[in-house]
Amino acid sequence: MPDRPQHVAVISGLSGAGKTATSKLFEDLGYTVVDNLPAELVPGLAELVASEPGRFERVAIVLDVRSGDPRVALGAVLGALEGRGIAPQVFFLEARDDVLIRRFSETRHRHPLEGRAGIAASIVEERRILEEVREQADVIIDTSDLSGRQLRERIFAALGASEAAGRIALQLISFGFKYGVPLESDLVFDVRFMENPFYDPDLRPLSGLTGPVRAFVLAQPPAQRFLAFAHDFFGFAIPAYVAEGRNRLTVAIGCTGGYHRSITVAEELAADWRTRDFGPVSVWHRDLERA
Fold first, then answer.
1. Domain segments of the chain as ranges
2. β-strands 89-94, 7-13 pairing
3. pLDDT in tens, 116-149
4. Domain 7-161 homologous superfamily, CATH
5. What is the C-alpha separation between 74 and 39, in angstroms, rounded?
6. CA–CA separation, 230 vs 189, rounded Å?
7. pLDDT in tens, 19-55
8. How far is the C-alpha of 174 from the C-alpha of 186, rounded, in Å?
9. Three-state DSSP class for 114?
10. Model confidence, pTM
C-alpha cells in the first residue's frame, strides 16, 4: 500500500451515546483500538504511538469518565502527539437525555457515575465533566436518531475530511423541527418562512433533492434573498472562524419536516461553499428517510 500519514483518532463522549459501536467501526477500518485505559497510562501510550509510526499507523483511543478525569487524559494525549507532529482527530458522541435513559433501561447497563441520585443526575454530571472535551472535539455526532449505517456514514465522512489538514471542516445538516434540533449544530437557520412544497400534491412525495422541488423553492424571492444573505454572511464568518483557530463548523438548516425546503437550501449552501474552497464540505440530510 502507498505510504499514508499516521492517523490517531480519539473517541470520547457520553456513556450510552455509541462509543462502543464507533470503536468497532474503527476496528473494521484496520485501526488498533485502545479502550478503558487508566488516565495514568495514557501519556505512555501516546508516546509509544508517536515513536513507532510504522507499527501504529492507525490508532483509535477511547477516553471517557471510566478513565478517570477525561480532560486530563485528553490533554496528555494531545500534548504527547502534537509534540511529535501528530494532530489527533477528536470525535465526541452525544445523545439526548431521554434517549440515553432509554438505552440504559433497555440494556440494563450501569452508568459509570451512577449513585444514589439515579441515572438522570449521572448524565447531567457526565455532561459537565466532559464539557471541555466536547469543546476541543473536531467532530461532534448526535446519535439520538442514527441507525448503524448512518453512524458509519458520519464516521467515514469525518475521516475523509481529516485529510485536509489545516483547513476548516464544514458540515451542513438539514433537519425537521418537529423531530428536534441537531445537538451538534453550531449555527441553526430556520427556513420555514419559505413557501412549503408539501402543500402541492405533485411535489409532496418528492424530496428537496429532486429537480421540481428545487425549482419550486429556489424560484421564491425569500429563498433567493436568504441565499444571497448566506453567501455574504459565510464569506465573512467562515474565514473569521478559521482565524480564531476553529477547525470545524456545523450549520443546521431546518424546516418543518426536513424533507423539502431544508434539503434544497442545504444543497445550495454546500455548492456555494465548495466553489469558494473554504474546506471540505459534507452534507447530511438527517430526516430524509423519515418520510
1. 7-161, 169-290
2. parallel
3. 678 899 999 999 999 999 999 999 999 999 988 8
4. P-loop containing nucleotide triphosphate hydrolases (3.40.50.300)
5. 9
6. 10
7. 999 999 999 888 999 998 887 887 888 888 888 888 8
8. 13
9. coil
10. 0.72
